From TrEMBL:
Organism: Aspergillus glaucus CBS 516.65
Matching InterPro entries: Glutathione-S-Trfase_C-like (IPR010987), Glutathione-S-Trfase_C_sf (IPR036282), Glutathione_S-Trfase (IPR040079), Glutathione_S-Trfase_N (IPR004045), GST_C (IPR004046), Thioredoxin-like_sf (IPR036249)
Domain GST C-terminal: 95-221
Protein name per the record: Glutathione S-transferase
Domain GST N-terminal: 3-88
Protein origin, superkingdom: Eukaryota
PROSITE patterns reported for this sequence: GST_CTER, GST_NTER
Length: 249
């Protein structure tokens, strides 16, 4: 196992905290570089050299004496466990049924929950006009995906998504489920998922990792309607600005 030389480029978002939570669960040393996505730092040339997609999270490391650049949270999580989780604290050995089951749920989050809930957030909070079809489509699709998770967790003996331990599949979902209310999804509809979210939140690694690069405030924010409106308005302004820039490319 090579010595970690990890820098995490991140912001306080559900995708960003996946990586800091995994790093904390693994007990790995890492440097943090905060990326101010409201200022479009993620679109600057130096950052695009690390992640051509111009989004956080990204991670750099030294692998076999060569610099390596990782982007896409799922790819970063797989890299971390393959390189540094030799004891399988948050993963399973390659080739086992559990290894493939983790992949199932990891891809489910990255291709399903993340994108759908992201669009639910967009249409519910950031769109310049209220488009009922967009809101309904993405909120309901997120609710459907939450229902699948809830049903699956109802059959889990350990309370985790795969086997007897917390894995990168759980870690990948947590920040999104903790922020369900921001997308207009009521977690109370999903008792098994709600209990899982609380079980995750009680872990030391989750508690440490969620406050990177700054305090994780979404759970408090969701209790304050006025603050939520204020936050949404601020975000709406820079998101719309960023979209205008992207459309010109
Ligand atoms: N599929 C990507 C999604 C990354 C993503 O959407 N990141 C957001 C923050 S959660 C971002 O960087 N947004 C800034 C932008 O779109 O310019 C992943 O899982 O890493």
């Amino acid at each position: 196992m090579s010595q970690p030389d990890i820098t995490l480029y991140t912001a306080q978002t559900p995708n960003g905290i996946k990586i800091s939570i995994a790093l904390e669960e693994l007990g790995l040393p890492y440097k943090v570089q905060k990326i101010d996505i409201s200022k479009n730092t993620q679109k600057e040339p130096w950052f695009l050299a690390i992640n051509p997609n111009g989004r956080i999270p990204a991670l750099t490391d030294t692998l076999n004496n060569q610099p390596i650049h990782l982007f896409e949270s799922g790819s970063i999580l797989q890299y971390l466990v393959e390189q540094y989780d030799k004891d399988h604290k948050i993963s399973y050995p390659q080739g086992t049924p559990e290894y493939y089951a983790v992949n199932n749920w990891l891809f489910y989050q990255n291709a399903g929950v993340g994108p759908m809930q992201g669009q639910a957030n967009h249409f519910s909070r950031y769109a310049p006009e209220h488009i009922p079809y967009g809101v309904t489509r993405y909120v309901n699709e997120t609710r459907r995906l939450y229902g699948v998770l809830d049903q699956h967790l109802s059959t889990s003996k350990s309370g985790w998504l795969v086997g007897d331990r917390v894995t990168i599949a759980d870690i990948s979902h947590w920040g999104w489920v903790a922020a369900a209310g921001w997308a207009g999804v009521d977690i109370e509809e999903y008792p098994h998922l709600k209990a899982w979210e609380e079980r995750m939140a009680a872990r030391e690694g989750v508690e440490k990792g969620r406050h990177v690069p700054e305090k994780h405030t979404i759970k408090d924010l969701l209790k304050n309607k006025e603050e939520m409106e204020k936050k949404a308005e601020e975000a709406r302004a820079w998101i719309q600005e960023g979209m205008k820039k992207d459309a010109k490319v």
